[in-house]
Design goal:
With 297 residues, the chain is mainly alpha-helical. The chain has a single domain, classed as ABC transporter involved in vitamin B12 uptake, BtuC (Orthogonal Bundle). It has 12 helices and 4 strands, in the order ααααββααααααββαα. The strands form 2 sheets. A two-stranded antiparallel sheet has the order 1-2. Strands 3-4 form a two-stranded antiparallel ribbon. The protein has helices at 2-32, 39-57, 59-85, 90-112, 139-161, 163-173, 175-180, 185-208, 217-232, 237-255, 268-271, 275-286, and strands spanning 128-132, 135-138, 260-261, 266-267.
Length: 297
């Protein structure tokens, strides 16, 4: 029972972090039809910028400053890069974001080097918060969940209770009509792309010190983000949320199991990295549009 409770909490916290990452990618894909291969690189930028800012003025200012800086970089990328290649189709957009990921990684190498940096959990959040049976549960894990839930509520309120949210939702399906009503649709695209980058940057701020901040972190988490988006359904925020929790719990529980897999000669823990991709293959076979995706006509 203790194992189940602890792993469930860990799975939820990791799943919420995955949702923070995948939500930005889902929003960008829903509005612009762009599958941003550089999305995980914004996550890495958020972690590195937070490390730099926190070394000067502390972690809590970095929690605000780093996502805003990453959002600014994202808007510049959309305005002066992605918008230029949009006219050439999706292949050009994919190649642009693919190359951008390499540019960001090389920029990180130049500024911070190739070794991991000492981006640590702040002292006020270090240590146990409560006990689960006989195990102490870290304060920072709870903090990660609270930030993720606050982000989720903020996205919902922004999309459903604000004017810009209504414009964004309308632009998802009827961009020509929105533009005819006098709204600047390209500016909406830029803001949404910047918002997606900000969400990835925020995930980097709270995930970089919980795990590790090093140049390979984007490559490590990038494939999982795309698995979440595919399993949840391309363009579905609700689907991405369910898929994030499902994959977070799947990986967390499997890592802690030493059961031997019949006929393979390996344990469940050893096969844990492959399980999300196996889930994606099964989803594509039996439900190609994803858990909550809509079938295109």
């Amino acid at each position: 029972m203790e194992f189940l409770a602890v792993q469930l909490l860990n799975g939820i916290s990791y799943g919420l972090l995955l949702f923070m990452l995948s939500s930005g990618l889902t929003l960008v894909f829903s509005l612009m039809g762009v599958l941003n291969f550089a999305h995980a690189s914004f996550y890495m930028l958020g972690a590195y910028v937070a490390y730099q800012v926190s070394s000067y003025i502390g972690f809590y200012p970095a929690l605000v400053i780093a996502p805003l800086l990453v959002a600014g970089i994202g808007m510049l990328v959309e305005r002066f890069g992605l918008r230029k290649v949009h006219r050439y189709g999706h292949v050009a957009e994919l190649l642009f974001t693919f190359g951008l990921a390499y540019l960001i990684e090389e920029a990180v190498h130049l500024v911070w080097g190739r070794a991991a940096v000492e981006y640590r959990i702040p002292g006020s959040l270090d240590g146990p918060l409560f006990e689960v049976f006989t195990s102490e549960y870290p304060t920072y894990r709870v903090f990660m969940m609270l930030v993720s839930v606050a982000m989720l509520v903020s996205i919902w309120l922004a999309l459903t209770r604000t004017r810009i949210g209504l414009v964004i939702q309308a632009a998802l399906t009827h961009p020509q009509t929105v533009e005819a009503l006098g709204h600047n649709v390209p500016r909406v695209f830029m803001l949404v792309f910047g918002g997606g980058a900000a969400l990835a940057g925020l995930a980097g701020v709270i995930g970089g010190n919980a795990f590790v901040t090093e140049p390979g972190m984007a490559a490590a988490v990038g494939p999982i983000i795309f698995v979440v988006v595919v399993v949840g359904g391309m363009g579905s925020l609700a689907g991405a949320f369910i898929a994030s929790l499902l994959i977070g719990c799947l990986q967390t529980f499997s890592v802690g199991l030493d059961w031997m897999v019949p006929w393979l000669g390996i344990t469940v823990a050893q096969s844990a990295p492959v399980l999300p991709y196996l889930l994606m293959v099964l989803i594509l076979i039996f439900r190609p549009r994803g858990l909550l995706g809509t079938r295109e006509n």
